């Protein structure tokens, strides 16, 4: 029995709907990692207490990356992350990975919560309110960058962000929130720092940061940053050019000869 045109249209519509549904399901499965006992949340890429692995590329479209167990993310690329939230029992092994964070980086697990040789964490300002990125907890990064003009980094008091590889900062403001925070570039690390305003962020535990620069508008207390100021009351000693030094040497020699001559011939 031959299907009527209406029946054929209905069948084609049903097949099209099924294809779209399967496509959406595959996208959802790619976006949500479940390799533990806990369930995935619809508004975040969530790793449960059992942990899991992800090595692909994904744009979270401003959703959060929630890590409550061990996540093996070697070589992965996460873009459009709203906030990274590493729980007290969570960890990210991110060798060779790249994570682009917009609104915040929160590490409740301490230095063991994030590891990754040749990894990059880029604070891009996307997904944030007022172009601000909050940073809490202490983390050791390989490469850390924040170079979006007008961006503000709020570092929690008492926290320390260490960088072993490359630290890139440009046209951003760094504020310690509620007390001094620490930003430490370890020996062997490289800095690429442009115009920055710093207040309440202490860099004295590592390399001096922006040693040839100066604090920008709104900056305040910034130990370990910028050029060393002269000691109070110190008077700078003027330097002499080559001709001045030659003349000074000649005069010194002439005075010495005259003194000797006068002593011999009173």
Kindly list the characteristics that best describe this protein.
single chain; 266 residues; alpha/beta; 15-stranded parallel beta sheet; 19 strands; disordered C terminus
Question: Which helices and strands occur, and which strands form pairs?
Answer:
Elements: H1 5-31, E1 44-47, E2 52-53, E3 57-59, E4 64-67, E5 70-72, E6 77-86, E7 91-93, E8 98-107, E9 114-115, E10 120-123, E11 132-136, E12 139-146, E13 151-156, E14 160-169, E15 172-177, E16 181-185, E17 190-193, E18 196-199, E19 201-202, H2 242-264
Parallel strand pairs: 1-4, 2-5, 3-6, 4-6, 5-7, 6-8, 7-9, 8-10, 8-11, 10-12, 11-13, 12-14, 13-15, 14-16, 14-17, 15-18, 16-19
The unreliable regions are 21-42, 257-266
Oligomer state of the chains in this structure:
single chain
Number of helices: 2
Outline: globular
Round the Cα radius of gyration to an integer and report it.
30 Å
Q: Alpha-carbon distance between the termini?
A: 142 Å
SSE order: HEEEEEEEEEEEEEEEEEEEH
Quickly count the domains: 1
């Amino acid at each position: 029995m031959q299907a009527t045109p209406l029946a054929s249209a209905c069948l084609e519509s049903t097949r099209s709907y099924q294809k779209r549904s399967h496509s959406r399901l595959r996208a959802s499965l790619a976006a949500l990692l479940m390799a533990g006992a806990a369930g995935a949340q619809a508004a975040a890429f969530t790793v449960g207490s059992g942990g899991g692995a992800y090595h692909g590329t994904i744009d979270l479209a401003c959703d959060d990356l929630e890590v409550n167990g061990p996540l093996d993310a070697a070589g992965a690329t996460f873009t459009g992350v709203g906030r990274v939230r590493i729980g007290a029992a969570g960890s990210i092994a991110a060798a060779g990975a790249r994570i682009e964070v917009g609104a915040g980086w929160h590490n409740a697990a301490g230095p063991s919560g994030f590891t990754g040789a040749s990894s990059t964490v880029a604070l891009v300002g996307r997904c944030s309110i007022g172009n601000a990125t909050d940073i809490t907890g202490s983390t050791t990064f390989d490469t850390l960058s924040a170079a979006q003009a007008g961006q503000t980094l709020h570092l929690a008091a008492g926290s320390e962000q260490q960088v072993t590889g490359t630290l890139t900062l440009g046209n951003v403001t760094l504020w310690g929130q509620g007390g001094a925070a620490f930003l430490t570039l370890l020996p062997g690390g490289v800095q690429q720092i442009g115009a920055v305003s710093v207040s309440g962020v202490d860099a004295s535990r590592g390399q001096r940061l922006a040693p040839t620069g100066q604090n920008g508008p709104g900056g305040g207390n910034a130990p370990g940053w910028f050029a060393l100021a002269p000691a109070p009351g110190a008077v700078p000693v003027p330097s002499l050019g080559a001709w001045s030094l030659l003349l000074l040497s000649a005069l010194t020699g002439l005075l010495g000869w005259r003194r000797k001559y006068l002593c011999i011939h009173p």
